[in-house]
Design a protein that fits this description.
The complex is a heterodimer of chains A (303) and B (151). Chain A is mainly alpha-helical. Helices cover 40% and strands 3% of the residues of chain A. The chains are: A mainly alpha (303), B mainly alpha (151).
């Protein structure tokens, strides 16, 4: 009996140790990046498409903060807790001084420069599909923003879970359970450039699937129901499906959807404001017309 | 006898119809009332958007009648958000935040009414786009904060 107990304790210890090691962040080395000539204009375009500012806004009660800068702190309510997206302006309290590889590991791998896991409320699960070149361009653009000094706030996790431990290892287990791996977008050779550009923007920077795709038991996106809609992450109502938009007469054609993304309610598209879509539509209105048409072309092709 | 029976039953039918009509208007409840008003807002906005999208010609008369209807219906809808109507016997997309920030909600609704009245005064096609932009942004501002997506 004692021997069984001892064996159990040893086995448990080994499992915990293996888990601790397996769940450790595994960042890319600096050598993974080749030479990069930054394109700030492209960075701004993708920063907008990715909606960085929409989540990294200053806290609502911080009336003195400049809401055009991503100094962070505004509460983001999700079923997994309340998060306070951090300061991502180029200040020492933000992303000031980060290297290119640190930024790429953060955005595409969900790994901080302190080698901890980020909570997946930060949609690195989608951003992982971006090219390194685009991610570095986003950094180049963000480095041109005015630095704001702002302290960061730990999340309120359910059951009083300790954020430190969760971020050091717990999320590593989640990444494995959710099947997360930084896999870049692969273009579909059977489709044209416009469709592929749209697919890239929707699946990668646009991170549309984070809300429009239902999640499975592991809180990972259910790929078999890609963009098929689901419960709203804030709790009330549903996020609509983006499939069969034409057959369901939601939009006439890609041009109609592109117009909806550009103008929203200004042209009577009255579903484009609810549930957080207003901020998305505002971002979309700032993209070049060709990107909106590409997004619409891809979405209208989904059946 | 027969004719009296017919006439009395006719009176009964008329009376019943009157009660039914009354119940669908006065007793329908705030959720029905505001949704009916907002449906009219949507219809009017659709007519204005069609002009902007060049699906219909610019016609000052059409603009005026739709903008006026829009203003009247937003005003009507605004009056049907009494305390306690965040839930009801049918689905409502009204967020609880309406009653937490009632003054802001009312101000946003008033802004939409103002924008609609400004639109009603538009007679030149050159002024139409800007008026529609202001009106659409007023709709968006209120829906962003106070309307949740459907169930």
């Amino acid at each position: 009996m004692k021997r069984i107990l001892a064996a159990g304790i040893i086995a448990g210890g080994i499992a915990a140790a293996v888990g601790w090691i397996v769940a450790a962040p595994d960042p890319l080395p600096a050598s993974a990046l080749g030479a990069h000539a930054a394109n700030v204009e492209n960075g701004k375009r993708l920063y907008t498409a990715a909606g960085c500012l929409s989540c990294h806004l200053p806290a609502k009660d911080d009336t003195e903060a400049d809401v055009s800068l991503p100094s962070g702190g505004r509460a983001l309510k999700t079923p997994a807790g309340v998060f306070y997206p951090p300061n991502i302006t180029p200040d020492a309290t933000g992303i000031g001084g980060w290297t290119g590889i640190q930024f790429v590991n953060a955005v595409k791998g969900g790994i901080s420069p302190q080698n901890t896991h980020y909570l997946p409320a930060f949609p690195y699960t989608s951003y992982a599909r971006m090219t390194n070149s685009d991610v570095l361009d986003i950094k180049a653009y963000m480095d041109t923003l005015k630095p704001v000094q702002a302290s960061n706030r730990q999340p309120d996790l359910p059951l009083g879970l300790p954020a430190e431990t969760v971020m050091r290892r717990g999320l590593g287990i989640w990444k494995i359970a959710a099947g997360f791996g930084p896999v870049e977008f692969a273009r579909d050779a059977s489709r044209d450039e416009v469709w592929n550009r749209g697919a890239y923007l929707v699946r990668g920077p646009g991170h549309c699937g984070e809300c429009h795709t239902p999640r499975n038991w592991a809180m990972a996106l259910d790929a078999s129901r890609w963009l098929a809609g689901g419960p709203h992450p804030e709790g009330a109502g549903k996020v609509p499906s983006l499939r069969n938009l034409k057959a369901r007469k939601r939009f006439k054609d890609a041009k109609d959807l592109a117009t909806a993304l550009e103008f929203g309610e200004t042209l009577g598209y009255d579903k484009m404001s609810s549930g957080g879509m207003a901020a998305v539509q505002t971002n979309m209105s700032k993209l070049p017309a060709e990107d909106r048409l590409a997004i619409a072309t891809y979405l209208m092709s989904l059946e | 006898m027969y004719s009296r029976l017919v006439s009395s039953s006719r009176t009964a039918v008329i009376g019943l119809t009157a009660v039914m009509a009354l119940s669908t208007t006065a007793f329908a409840g705030p959720i029905d009332d505001r949704q009916a008003a907002m449906k009219n807002v949507g219809k009017a906005m659709g007519a204005l958007a069609a002009i902007a999208k060049k699906e219909a010609p610019f016609d000052a008369g059409v603009v005026n009648s739709n903008a006026t209807a829009l203003a009247d219906n937003v005003k009507a809808a605004k009056d049907h958000f009494p305390e306690g109507s965040a839930t009801g016997d049918k689905e409502t997309w009204a967020k609880a935040e309406i009653w937490q920030n009632k003054a802001d909600f009312d101000a946003k609704a008033d802004k939409a009414v103002e924008a609609a009245m400004a639109m009603a005064a538009v007679t030149a096609e050159a002024d139409f786009g800007a008026a529609l932009g202001a009106l659409g942004n007023a709709c968006k501002a209120c829906h962003t904060d106070y309307r949740r997506p459907k169930q």
